[in-house]
Amino acid sequence: MPLFATATAEAPAAAAQVSDEFQKLDASWIKVANEGKSFTLASSAVVQYGANSRWVSKTLSGTVACTNQTFGDPAPYVAKACYTQVPPAPAPAPAPVAPSAGTVLAQEGGSFTVPAPTLVKYGADTRWVSKAVNGAASCTNEFFGSDPAFGTAKSCVSAGAVAAPAPAPAPAPAPAPAPAPAPAPAPAPAPAPAPAPAPAPAPAPAPAPAVAGDIVDTSGAVDPAAYASMAYKFATDAGVAYRYGAPASKAGVQTLPERADTGVMSDIRSVYQLGHEDPTNNLYVSIHAATIGVPAGTRSVENSVVWLQNSATDRRTFQQRPQVLWQQQRLLPTAIDDYLSSGALAKNDPADLPVAEHRGESAADSPATRLSLIATQGSPTKPSTMYTVGTLTAQNRASTKFKLGFVPTGISVTGGGEFALVSGWDTVATKGQVAVVSLGSAPQGWQPGQARYDWWHGWMDMMHPGFVDQGNYVFMKVVGYVDLPSDMKAPTGIVTTTGIHPYTTMLKYDSSGTISSFQYLDSPMANNRAKMLPGGEDYERYAKGGVSVVVSKSEKKVAFIDLRPLFTYTNGMYLGSAASNLETQNVGQAATQWPYPLTAESMPVVVKSLTLASRPTALWTTATRSYWSKDEQVRIPDYPFWKTTPQYPRAAIAVEGGELQLFSLGRYAAGAKPTTPDPADIQKVGSVTGLGDNITHLAAAKGYTGVEDPINELVLFTDRANRRWGWVKLSNASDSSSTGSVIRTMEDSRVDPIMVTNADDYSTQGRVLSVADYTGMSVANYRFGDVIYPDAGSGFCVSAGACPTLTSNGEFAGKLALPFKPTSVHSSNVP
User: Residue 513: which CATH number?
Assistant: First the structure.
């Protein structure tokens, strides 16, 4: 039938009234609003606006005003209306239909709705229970009454309609005899050879219905309206549920014993749990942390960010309970005061609530580990901001703003503190991107115009954004955005590695044999470029490339981004010629100042994109292994010979169901020497199963007894659903083959863990973990191994076994209450 009916000459003029509106559109068009009113579309649809034979159409979604301003005026001076078209429904009237058998309705912990009585199966593999459902339901053990597949990620699947099979077509005259005799006819056989009358068309497959709590429809396509809405909910419970699933609800979990406080330090009033204060043994080392989350009360910046003492060694005591910094006696970082007073943040603007936080997890006390980078949510009218929160002695201020509509979802930092790579949603264009932020460092407390002083042997001449330094940032500049593939609009996490060990860049002996760094010894850079060029003594002390790994939970995608163009261009500007180096000395925020906006030559490139069978929930990379790690050697004990001990860079991606998928990175993790990578370098090389039901985070293991290289050999995972965390030990047989296993888990009934991270074992072996306890509104600490004090003559925790945990599987070390529900926590040594 034509879209528009044509009036005939014989039709009387009076007929062109209200009834005529229906005569000009066929019966599939229904009125949804009169002129001047509004209506809401659940998904994108064509809308006709007008009257009589004069119409204009637009494809729209969401709330629509039925006005000339929206559509134009196709029929001046005539009352108009809006119509949408619905496909013909099954005669005689549309009836709810159960999802077809085999349709996956939800993953365990999720929810779903069926429009008609449906038999729903709950379970996994061959282990299922069934229940008749009509309407909304939860895909949980509680709803179905049992756990049919304990320890396995389950799902809810339609088994078809509950009611008896639909009746056969209405009886018709007996069918004509078939050409050949046939057995007694089955009840109500389909007529043959003529086809049975075709049923009315089923509802159009697109747009598919939205998935509850998600941004995609049942076909997996991103729904633009749901996308734009969810982007600005990350600082709410709904956004956290989208990112990290349902809160932990498992019962029957063990409760680890808590170590009691032993005393209070006489002068600083911090609480300790091991040892006794001894003023003659003045050894002091502390670990500070930052945490962010969803405010429980007033939605204020001041109720969403905290810094704290994670742990400390002080005068023959060990402090493992998380507590307020004794030097400040406040939870709010002092940096926030400055950001509020400068206007970088607004105290009570929800757009400035934090949604992402990251602090590098590499070798202790290295550039990427000094400060936390925190990104805000932004709003449709206010850009997101990224800013720093550090430790007591590394807390320079720096901030930058992203383009309007870019909502950060994850932050990663290159190992030398050169760049931050920030995954995010471009809500204006509905596409996924990675922002590239150039970082510049300075000594603690440095201000523009001041001379630089020796702060841990960083550059003494000036700031060099995008080049390795000590990681106490005073400068940030967004230099570009990498477009992700068109089917990856909603990235939810990012990790990055350059493959270079930070001590390679930090540790160089001066002429007197004293430990220094190549940055300090090669200052000023302009006069010492030759040392850092091929053949120079410091050529293999800075990164030549790297790789970022990005995942999209909703779209089941992973993308690998080659950072080599970025490093090649930046290194070339600093070292390539005296003229180019001179350009880098004009540092500033203008497009004509260094660092310049990225071009096709310098922009990182997506080199591979893969579709995963299950939704990715967390990711990790090795920290200090590169392509060249294949050539590593160790000395054979008692012999003057060496043997090759090849190592390989890896990425790990946790997917729903508790599987850890392992990927090779090959030459993309370039390390200190150039490579010529190929996309074939990136491939799945193995997997590990049995991690848990809802893996919400993967972290670096910074210390573990019996493991020589934990930040590359172990993955610390968080299993929120089971109030549990644990360690996976990886084993790489070759560049194309990896295996692994879960070697240990811990659990505690006190917490709803979204993220578990490992404190630095700097100087003292502390073996402390920090848990972002969302529902409990706290940071909770746990100790998983022996404390070993660094002074062998102190008589305090001097060896393994002297200061063990209360149980063989660890102990609870205490909680620090927060004014928010935390989603992220990271810590590092105070330099």
Answer: 2.130.10.10
**pTM recorded for the entire structure:** 0.76
**Domain presence at residue 168:** no
Token reading at 559: 């993308």
Is residue 683 very low, low, confident or very high in pLDDT (cuts 50, 70, 90)?
Answer: very high
Q: Write out pLDDT tens, residues 717-757.
A: 999 999 999 999 999 989 999 999 999 999 999 999 999 99
- 799/705 Cα distance (integer angstroms): 12
CA–CA gap between residue 172 and residue 399 (Å, rounded): 77
Determine the Cα–Cα distance for residues 343 and 511; give it in Å rounded to an integer: 47
Give the pLDDT confidence of 103-144 residue by residue, as tens digits.
Answer: 889 888 788 898 889 988 988 777 778 898 998 888 888 888
* Residue of 412, 415, 416, 407 lying closest to 436 (CA atoms): 412
Beta bridge mates, 719: 695, 724
Question: What residues contact 579, with CB distance under 8 A and at least 6 apart?
Answer: none
**β-bridge pairing 419-426 and 431-441:** antiparallel
Residue 731 in domain: yes
Contact 541, 505 (CB under 8 A): yes
Residue 54 or 86, more confident: 54
For residue 95, how many other CB atoms are within 10 A of its CB?
Answer: 10
The answer to the question of residue 245 being in a domain is no
What's the sign of the alpha-carbon dihedral 657, 687, 720, 356? negative
Q: What is the dihedral of CA 661, 667, 670, 673, to 10 degrees?
A: 150
CA dihedral 671, 674, 679, 683 (to 10 degrees): -30
If you ran DSSP here, which 8-state letter would residue 382 be given? B
Starting at the edge strand that comes first in sequence, how are the strands of the sheet with 493-497 ordered? 493-497, 547-552, 557-562, 605-611
Cα–Cα distance measured from residue 744 to residue 729, given in angstroms and rounded to the nearest whole number = 9
Q: Comparing C-alpha atoms, which of 315, 308, 309, 319 is closest to residue 261?
A: 319
Backbone angles phi, psi at 679, to 5 degrees: -55, -25
Per-residue pLDDT band for 215 (boundaries 50, 70, 90) equals very high
Last residue of some domain: 57, 85, 113? 85
Residue 238 lies in a domain: no
Give the model confidence (pLDDT) of 597-628 as tens digits.
999 999 999 999 999 999 999 999 999 999 99
Owning domain of residue 289: 263-829
Question: Distance between alpha carbon 280 and the CA centroid of its chain, in Å?
Answer: 47
42's CB contacts (< 8 A; 6+ apart) are 210
Task: Find out whether 517 and 507 touch, Cβ atoms under 8 Å.
Answer: yes
CA distance 290 to 544: 31
Q: At what angle do helices 237-244 and 224-231 cross, to 10 degrees?
A: 110
811: closest CA among 784, 788, 789?
784
Domain stop point among 32, 61, 85:
85
Residue 221 and residue 202: Cα distance in Å, rounded? 20
Instruction: Average the pLDDT over 671-686 and give the result.
Output: 96
- Is residue 339 a contact partner of residue 397, using CB atoms and an 8 Å limit? yes
Cα angle, residue 385 at apex, residues 381 and 391 outer, rounded to 5°: 155
What is residue 14's predicted lDDT score, i.e. its pLDDT? 32
Q: Around Cβ 790, how many Cβ atoms within 10 Å?
A: 14
Q: Which residues face 551 on adjacent strands?
A: 493, 558
Q: Exposure string (b/e) for 9-39, b if CB count within 10 Å is 16 or more?
A: eeeeeeebeeebbebbbeeebeebbebeeeb
Percent of the chain predicted with pLDDT > 70: 90
State the sign of the Cα–Cα–Cα–Cα dihedral 496, 500, 505, 507: positive
Number of structural domains the chain divides into: 2
